Amino acid sequence: MDEQSVLARAEAPARSRYAVAAIPLALLGWSIALVPPLAVTIALRLRELDVDGAAANLGLVLGVGAFFSFVTNPLAGRLSDRTMSRFGMRKPWIFSGAVIGYAGIAVIAYAPNVPVVLLGWSVAQIGLNFSLAALIALLPDQVEPGRRGRVASFISLAQNVGGVGATFLVQLFPIGPLQSLVPSLFGVVLMLAVVAPIRDKVRTEQPVDRLDVKTLFGSFVFNPRRYPDLGWAWLTRFFLNTTQFTATSYLTYFLIAEFGVSDDEAPTMVFQAVLVNAVGLLLVTPVLGWLSDKLGRRKPFVILSSLIATVGLTVIAISSTIPVMLLGQFILGAGVGAFFAVELALIADVLPSEQDAGKDLGVANLAQSLPQSLIPIAAPGVIAAFGYPGLFLGGALFGILGALGVTRVRRVR
């Protein structure tokens, strides 16, 4: 009996309206848990520990943490595909990953030096990416294809709006441990509370293939020659996430260096920038996700989003005042919103098979986590040579590449 037949005999849950709402809400909680250290508190903690080396240390911490995100995501997807727990295939990884991730965030909050910050962020990335891979795999498990565009748009919307909620909570607290601990705890509790009632798919038979080194290595790859549409969709996701992450990874230091914002003011300014970005995203994402399902088209929305995001990041790069920078954030948010309205549905539509959905979505998630590894490595050198405008203009170029990449996808209109 092949793997497809085995999974067909798994206990499949009825696709319910609750799951349609719960999955985006869970991703909202996940984002609220992740964003405080990623966007604000790690940068401020590193300035407390070593103000002169903060930029280089931030690149090191984010880069190593993103490496663990890179490794964890497809492994978590593969393992959740094979899980035979009576609690389901996905939920055990969501819950255990959340606990491990929050433990890492607690380590960061009390870290006495840079290596401990690095350790804490690595643990946080491992745990939260186990949760993420299993959460994303709930989409094909729980949502029929005709509704995935709408649900995917709300998932992406929730992840990005979560940044607003997270930075709002962060700026309510003075610099210190509570800036990380309270917002992230809120996010973890929300994520687990809405996932708990979902009736997860239960696997009742052993996987056909053994979990050996070859199988684990296979968690990181797919054959782009055999599945070219997935390959081009993967590249498109990589390019657009590079554009997005370029705008957020060094935002705190950009505000401090270019606009004279103090460390105490930085959390509030980051919140304002993220809020304006989210307004643009909110105006676009729900409408285009619905319209994508209605028209049965994905590619035109990705092309439009790439060009808008490129314009937004360019405006940020050349901004000389806070209002112009916020305008760029609004435009970027609209472009990112147009992209995230359809990109997850685009990926789901070109998956090779349902039996490896968790693994393949984990590989697709590498296109989201890989820029988080590469940008911190490249950013210090780019900033030293060309300043923050050079960093942002470089990110804008990837938006154009995203528009070109999606045109090569054939199976999806």
Structure in a nutshell:
By secondary structure, this protein is an all-alpha fold.
Question: What are the key terms here?
Answer:
413 residues, Growth Hormone, Chain: A, 77% helix, 0% strand, membrane, MFS_trans_sf
Secondary structure blueprint with pairings:
Elements: H1 3-8, H2 17-49, H3 54-82, H4 91-109, H5 114-142, H6 148-170, H7 178-195, H8 213-217, H9 228-249, H10 251-259, H11 266-295, H12 299-318, H13 322-340, H14 343-349, H15 357-406
Describe this structure in words.
- This protein starts with a helix and ends in a 7-residue tail after the last helix.
- 77% of the residues lie in helices and 0% in strands.
- The protein has one domain (3-406): MFS general substrate transporter like domains (Growth Hormone, Chain: A, Up-down Bundle).
- The longest helix is centred in the last third of the chain and has 50 residues, at 357-406.
- The chain has 15 helices and no strands.
- It is an all-alpha fold and 413 residues long.
- It comes from Paractinoplanes pyxinae.
- It is found in: Cell membrane.
- InterPro entries: MFS, MFS_dom, MFS_trans_sf, Sugar_transporter_CS.
